[in-house]
Amino acid sequence: MENRSHFHTLEELIRALDKERKLVAALFKDRKKLSFDYNLARELASRKDESLDFLTRFGIVRYNGDFVELEDVYLRFFEDVLQVNEEISVASVKEYIDNLNLAIDYYLAEKNQGRKYGYLKDVRRMLRNIGLTCVRSVIDLKRNIDNTYKNEPTYHIKKKKLVNLDQKRRDIAALITACERLIDEKQATFFMVAMDVQLHATVSDVRYQLREVYHNLIELDRQIINYLNLIEYQNRLLEKVQKLKYLRDQLLLESNTDVSARLAAANPLWMEPRPKYTLKVSLSMLRNSNEGLQLIKDLVAGKGKGRLRRSNLAPPLSADELTLQQRVMQMVDVSEVHNAFIASGDNLFHFVMNYSGAPVEMDTDARLVLFCQIASQYVNRLNITAERRQYQQFDYPLIYAKQ
After folding, report:
1. Helices 155-181 and 91-109 meet at what angle, rounded to 10?
2. Residues 52-65 as b or e (16 or more Cβ within 10 Å = b)
């Protein structure tokens, strides 16, 4: 085999990782233990010592005494892709902003259109990377804040970690402000001159991502302050408990503190469940008294408890009510009136007011309602003119059928 220290093609790298995927997955899973034994790694490797030598020579794993570890470059890559990294670095965002400034300067100074387009593509790519990196950074930041508060056992280390994470939050917010200032102020000329459809879409997406990240940073600020206050309160409580324990061990608790007076003044019974005392009727009273006999009779009759009472039933329906009854309501068919109006050639209001084919008697209000129904339901078939007439206190337009 040729002795080399790097892969020549991407296919070689993918093939090597796939071949040793069990070992690589186990090393990544136990990356925090720092004690992955060589013999266990040898068992997981496809070709034992030969595979370990191959992975070591190509910089995928390294030996640490009797243990095996993933190289940092692969470890960081897997953590970034799977979004489980604990170290939050804002240097990459700052580097993207610096490179973005350089690419814009190159674009403005370049005269060749082909190379100008290449710099424009670099600008779009860097803007997308800035947005994605900020989003990932705030996700990692929130996860690290929660893990630190919940899993770090040492008070001083927990406090220092939270303070450091708060500084990371400030750094991310400062970089977001710097990126927005670059787009709006420092490089405003470039974004006016070179703004095409793709660049406009990229800038809009990045602005939206940065806005969402900034809102999340405000929430993380509130969360960090809350966690710091909680651990400070827990630490003060722990110190008080330790002092009380020391005084108790030294038999000085009652003489040096007012604990006895405070316990005497306290009423801890509020934490106990409220007792329930059930009252039962005496058997002798039920047997030997008129009141007891009456209670038994009421119970048998269903008058004892509310759940034993029979509900009030409605009276049964009569034979007349069970008889099928029909009621016919006379109504005006609007479509029939409309068809008659189309054939009449008259204006709608005059036709409705003089219509005599209705099956029921219609007063003036009913005829006005019929006029409005036809005018609204068949508006596409009517010619509503601007000429108006007066009828009593009503003002109506002249409406004819469309020819």
Report:
1. 10
2. bebbeebebbeeee
Where b means 16+ CB within 10 Å and e means fewer, 113-134 reads eeeeeebbebbbebbebbbebb
Q: Which residue shows structure tokens 């005599």? A: 356
Write the CA distances from 23 to 18, 76, 98, 189, 343, integer angstroms.
10, 17, 39, 53, 91
As beta bridge partners, residue 397 has: 388
Choose among 213, 219, 224: nearest CA to 138.
Answer: 213
Largest CA distance in the chain: 119
- Is residue 96 within 8 A of residue 129, CB to CB? The reply is yes
Query: For residue 208, what are the CA distances in angstroms to 212, 214, 253, 300, 368?
Result: 6, 10, 61, 76, 57
**100 touches 126 (CB < 8 A):** yes
pTM of this structure: 0.50
If you ran DSSP here, which 8-state letter would residue 360 be given? S
Strand ranges for 227-369 from DSSP E: none
Locus of tokens 């993918």 = 14
The C-alpha atoms of residue 371 and residue 181 are separated, in whole angstroms, by: 66
- For residue range 28-68, list pLDDT tens digits in order: 887 777 677 778 877 888 888 888 888 888 888 887 777 88
Please state, in angstroms and rounded to a whole number, the distance separating the CA atoms of residues 335 and 325.
29
* Residue 67 and residue 37 in contact, taking contact as beta carbons nearer than 8 Å: yes
DSSP helix/strand/coil, 386: strand
Distance between terminal CA atoms of the chain?
Answer: 95
User: Token pair 């500084």 is at which residue?
Assistant: 167
Q: Give 25-30's long-range contacts (Cβ < 8 A, gap of 24+).
A: 27/61, 27/68, 27/69, 27/70, 28/70, 28/75, 28/78
d(CA 149, CA 231): 8
DSSP state of 37: B
Strands 61-64 and 67-70: antiparallel
Rounded distance between C-alpha atoms, residue 36 and residue 26, angstroms: 9
Over the stretch 151-198, which tens digit does the pLDDT of each residue have? Answer: 888 888 888 989 988 888 888 888 888 888 888 877 777 777 777 788
The radius of gyration of the chain's CA atoms, rounded to the nearest angstrom, is 44
Judged against a pLDDT cut of 50, whether residue 370 lies above it is answered with yes
Place of tokens 């070709």: 47
